[in-house]
Amino acid sequence: MIKVSILVPVYKCEKFINQCVESLFSQAFDDVEFIFYDDCSPDASVSLIHQCLEKHPDRWEQVRIISAQQNSGVSIARNRLLVEAKGEYIWYVDSDDWIEPDAIRLLYETACSSKADIVSFGFYYEGISRCATVYHYKYKSVKECLKDVIGNNWGAVWRFFFRRSIATENSILFPVGYNVAEDYVFCIKYLFHVQNIISIDVPLYHHITYNTMSLVATQDIHSLVHQYEATIIVEDFLRKNKILQLYSKDLNLRKAYVLASFYRYFNRIWGGLYGPLWKRLVARWKRKAIALIYKHGLKSSK
Known about the structure:
By secondary structure, this protein is α/β, with parallel strands linked by helices.
């Protein structure tokens, strides 16, 4: 069995894919496969993967590029990658992100030495200013991690190193039709079946958020609806498995985040209406209040 499968969905990432692929092919770890899923990307992303591969001829036999017949979205891409993977462990890497040197070896050796079903690690969050914020997470138990993810603290699939058999044996897949929050659902269902977790207090991943073509950057009302629906899926899953009460406070944090996201969205597109509308509403309520006072005042005087 191959030790590690690196799974990369590819779509509209030509400005970032070279750094991503170079960071993968430059790893010292050898017992690995790299599977890319081209979701009908309209740019030069796939050509750039081939160009990078020419610089690393020793990786030819370890690379597979799967081409979709039509653009189907990130959930179907990730599900197909999971089906194609043969590694003992899998790691999803976004095509506009990149990983630290020797990250794969460190993750695999840590997972094996501790017999972990899942490995968490630190990461760099790189925003539009190009300045990186480092996030560290060190979990003492699976329950602690599950509470954290349910509560909306980075339930992202790229920040975990998964034992593949946990997902395949329990039929854990990404919900189809979602362009955001699909990994939130996957991570929670996966963690529910995990027996042990190990954390590496070292940042190994660079999460890029200044890609203007990414699904996160182009968030719209449909994305917010997906966030809401993913939360409902998780709530139903927790209820079905009789652990909703145990994690209700954490789920409420997630609900508050989704509610605030809706508010920020509508405030951004309709915020200019608030002032004039508020004045009109106050005036309307004032007229109604005066009418009621006048009406009841007349009745009481008779």
